[in-house]
Each structure stands twice: as structure tokens, then as C-alpha cells.
Amino acid sequence: MSIPVHIVTGFLGAGKTTLLNRLLKSGAFANTAVIINEFGDVGIDHLLVEATRAGDTMIELSDGCLCCTVRSDLVDTLLQIAARIDDGAALDRVIIETTGLADPVPVLQAVIASPGVRERFHVASVVAVVCAATGLASIEGHEEARRQVALADRIVLAKTDIAPAPAELVARLAALNPLVTPVDAQAPGFALTLDDAALSGAQVPDEKPHDHAHHHDVNRHDAAIEAFTLKHDRPIPEATVEMFADLLRSSMPRELLRMKGIVWTVEDPDRPLVVHGVQSVFHPPVRLDSWNGRKPETRLVVIAKNGSRAHIEGLFGAFTGQIAPDRPDRQALTDNPLAIPGM
Questions:
Q1: Which of 184, 201, 235 delimits the end of a domain?
Q2: Of 3, 160, 258, 266, which one has the fewest beta carbons inside 10 Å?
């Protein structure tokens, strides 16, 4: 059985520890191993997180950031958790709280690609906590803060009781991650639901309407990062999916931040194939039991940077045999990224 991992990230002072306490106190996360990544000689955050039951396990990783110096410690810790479960420990999930300076990409890669870890764990969700008061300055001034938001499956606005989220911050979050609607942690009845069953792509959100005038504003600080959805309404051979993923990770390992989704395949049309990759590292594809009443289709959420959207959409269209009706026939052929030079 694959063990779900939820990653809680957010820039310095965003309110990650407060949110984590709320999750653990809610009673919905009993039997949870919590990994706290400290930065510095003396750990503090792990002392501020309250274990709710004897079954909860608190683990501190110190003297470095998960995205760099202690990544190997994270892998070792996850393997130790798997061994404890094998020995009978009642642990149902893992929550990782990163440091405020952590880039989520290496953390995701550690879970989905490390030998021994990827066979036992899967990334169920990435939660980004954004401070309503300081979030805009963090996003404008730090690439790590922008990546934390862009790669998130959930975005939580914190500290709105101190200062309401300014409209510019809300707009910036929408630009960085248009597929996720932020939720207010101070709203009445707030409850953050984390789906253990999700394989980071089993549930793909609908793409929200986009303001094209805003989208093309060259003055936006976050114009380099973009989220979009690739869709196809017919079954795709698994070999096509593999070739598409291989070409993406080999040709743009830095531009492709994350790709997750479900694929309708020719070989097993009744069971969706889950695809999840971070930069050049992809988790071995996993089959879900069924479409669970949903209409079969391929839907891949892509988060990329440096204006890669048109190129990725062109590759996907070429691999899936889609035509380009908005271009002349000759241009559609010559612009085909899979076309053989000279033909």
C-alpha cells in the first residue's frame, strides 16, 4: 500500500506551523508522521507543533534546508517510517513542513524518484501557505515563494485577521497558479481537506477563465511561470505518453516545473493512468481502479516557466495527432515540433 505524503510549504512567517496545528487538532489526521524541517542550530518549530495522540510521530530535520543539504536525511527518514509501518506502527500518512526558504521541487523529487521511497510513498498534495500581510512582498522578492505557490495543489491565505489580503496579492496568486482558488484560513467553517487517496493528478481541476489582457502584461513579476491544462478526448497509446514525457524531461528539464494528471490509454481504457513528474524526474505511472463515474479523458496539468506553454502544447498536439486549425496547412506542418527537417 502506498503511503500518502502531504507537503506544507510557504515563505518565512507565512503561518505554516499554525495551519499544521489546526490540521492535527481537527482529529482528521490521527496516526500521522510529521516531519519538521528546521534551519539553524537550534530547532524551534517542532516544539510549537502539538502531537494530538500517542500515535502521532514528530520528526525534526535540522542543520539545513530540505531542498539542499538535508535531502538525503529526508529520504532516510521516509525509509525509517516505512520500516516502522512494516513493524506494526499505526501510521497512515506523512506531513512534511518545509522551511520558508525551501524550493518545493527537490522535495517532490525526493518522494517521487528516490529508490525505495517511490515504491512506498506518493505525493498526495502540496499545500502553500501565503501570509495576507507579507505574501505580496515575498512573491515579488523571492523565486522560492513564487515556486511554492505555482506548484501547489492547495493555497491557504493566512493571517487575514491581521490584514485582509490585498487585491494585488490575490491577482498575483491567480497569475502564478490559475488552476487553484485560494482559501481563507480565517473564513467561518474553514476546513482544509487533504485527500490521501489522490496520486497528485487523480483529481485534476478545471481550468478557470483567464483574463488575457492581464495574462500578456509584460510588467507582471511572475510572467515567467505559467500553469495550464492539456486535454485529449480519445485514448492514447501508453508508448505515446512515455515518448511525450521523455521528450519534455530531456528537452526542457529546467522549464518544466511540474506535470501531473490522468491519461486515457488504449491498453486499459477503463483504468486511468496517473502521471506525475517534477522537472526531469517522473514517478513510475500508476493505475487507478476506475474513472469513478467521471467521463474518460486525458487531462494533464502543466506548470512551466520561460514562455514554454506554446512549445509544450505543440508537442502534445503533435504526439496526439491534433490539427492546428488556426494556422495555414503549410505553417502547421513546418511548425510541427516533431516534423523531420527538410520534409
A1: 184
A2: 266
Are residues 121 and 18 both part of a single domain? yes
Instruction: Give residue 83's identity as a one-letter amino acid code.
Output: A
Cβ neighbours of residue 108 closer than 8 Å, sequence gap 6 or more: 7, 123, 126, 151, 258, 278
Cα distances (angstroms) measured from residue 336 to each of 234, 245, 287, 301 = 20, 17, 31, 22
H-helix or E-strand containing 261? strand 256-263
Of 51, 67, 147, 143, the residue nearest 111 (C-alpha): 67
Name every residue whose Cβ is closer than 8 Å to that of residue 111 and which is 6 or more positions away in sequence.
Answer: 5, 7, 78, 117, 118, 121, 122, 123
Return the biggest CA–CA distance within the chain.
68
Q: What is the pLDDT of residue 106?
A: 83
| Percent of the residues in the chain that have a pLDDT greater than 70, as a whole number | 76
Identity of the residue numbered 2? S
How many domains does one find in the chain? 2
Sign of the CA dihedral with 253 first, then 256, 261, and 262 last: negative
Measured distance between the N- and C-terminal CA atoms of the chain, rounded to whole angstroms = 50
- 246 contact partners, CB below 8 Å, separation of at least 6: none
Query: pLDDT for 5-20, tens place per residue?
Result: 999 999 988 988 888 8
* pLDDT attached to residue 182: 94
Domain encompassing residue 48 = 3-184
Lateral strand order in the sheet of 57-61: 57-61, 32-37, 93-97, 3-9, 121-131, 154-158, 183-184
Cell triple for 165 = 489580503
Q: Which of 254, 217, 245 is nearest to 103 (CA)?
A: 254
